[in-house]
């Protein structure tokens, strides 16, 4: 029921404002009813209406049912199309939300992305410094970003406007890391920071400070490790951005099978110092296509696993709204 209401709201089939407000309230009520946390108060703030839970945690009302979709066109083309079956969840605790299952070899056609909207979302340089290491094959593995020299404490800024998905210390090598999801369909990574200046679910504008440069994680000297990713798949930032002139190379980015760098391994990869090592088998992985009426507990029982394991495999929470037609990894 909640899935259907959420679909109607997101597709904007209901244009009457009062009816849309009623749909929001029904969704919130039904979600809260199934959630162990009890709401004890609501507050108005500059960021919007907030709900306060019994354990003193809080959340913006607009974020309760947010599923991470900022670009409906790409979501429909890449996730809802089961022949491609890309995964992209909204998870604050996982660096990669697809478990690295998004295979660019499945792309049937060239995907168009408007990297920069000239009327609103203008690109801003994350940090104006000297590039010390570029994207590409390095020391037997692929370096998945661009390293920019800076001093600890220098201000690092959002490349495009978007919403913060991840802002915490990453034990896999990134150190203090901020990940921002953008409406153009990309995510940007800002690694080795000395300090975070943003929190998950925070909306940021292009050029807004999001952290301070540093030397945390697997880093040898203060620098910014900056990545541009398309549904978890790394792109060469220098093919999108002209760092010298502090602008995008072309506002139109065409993504296809050949866009991605040499050495990139989609499956069975482990992150180490900004790179991937491919050393695992994928033969035992199994997926289930979500149908109307499915629940995580029902799917877990059917496949002899647990809800917590399903959440871990798919980068979701137990309260995440299941999307009909999405492929859910069950093994």
């Amino acid at each position: 029921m909640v899935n259907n209401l959420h679909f109607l709201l997101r597709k904007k089939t209901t244009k009457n404002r009062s009816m849309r407000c009623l749909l929001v309230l029904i969704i919130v009520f039904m979600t809260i009813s199934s959630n162990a946390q009890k709401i004890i108060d609501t507050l108005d703030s500059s960021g919007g209406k907030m709900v306060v839970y019994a354990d003193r945690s809080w959340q913006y009302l607009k974020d309760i049912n947010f599923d991470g979709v900022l670009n409906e066109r790409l979501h429909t083309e890449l996730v809802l199309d089961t022949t491609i079956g890309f995964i992209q969840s909204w998870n604050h605790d996982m660096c990669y939300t697809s478990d690295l299952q998004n295979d660019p070899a499945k792309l049937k056609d060239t995907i168009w992305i408007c990297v920069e909207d000239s009327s609103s979302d203008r690109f801003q340089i994350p940090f104006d410094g000297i590039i010390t290491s570029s994207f590409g094959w390095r020391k037997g593995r692929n370096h998945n970003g661009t390293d920019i020299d800076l001093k600890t404490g220098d201000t690092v800024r959002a490349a495009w406007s978007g919403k913060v998905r991840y802002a915490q210390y990453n034990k896999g090598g990134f150190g203090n890391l901020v990940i921002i999801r953008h409406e153009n369909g990309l995510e940007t990574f800002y690694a080795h920071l000395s300090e975070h200046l943003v929190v998950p679910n925070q909306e940021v504008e292009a050029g807004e400070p999001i952290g301070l440069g540093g030397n945390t994680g697997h880093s040898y000297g203060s620098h910014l490790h900056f990545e541009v990713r398309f549904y978890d798949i790394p792109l060469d930032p220098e093919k999108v951005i002209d760092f010298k002139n502090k602008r995008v190379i072309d506002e139109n980015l065409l993504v296809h099978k050949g866009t991605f760098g040499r050495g990139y391994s989609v499956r069975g990869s482990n992150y180490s110092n900004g790179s991937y090592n491919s050393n695992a088998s994928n033969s035992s992985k199994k997926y289930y296509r979500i149908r109307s009426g499915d629940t995580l507990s029902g799917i877990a029982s059917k496949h002899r696993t647990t809800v917590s394991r399903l959440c871990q495999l798919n980068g979701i929470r137990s309260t995440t709204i299941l999307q009909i037609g999405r492929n859910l990894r069950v093994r």
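The radius of gyration is 20 Å. The mean pLDDT is 79.
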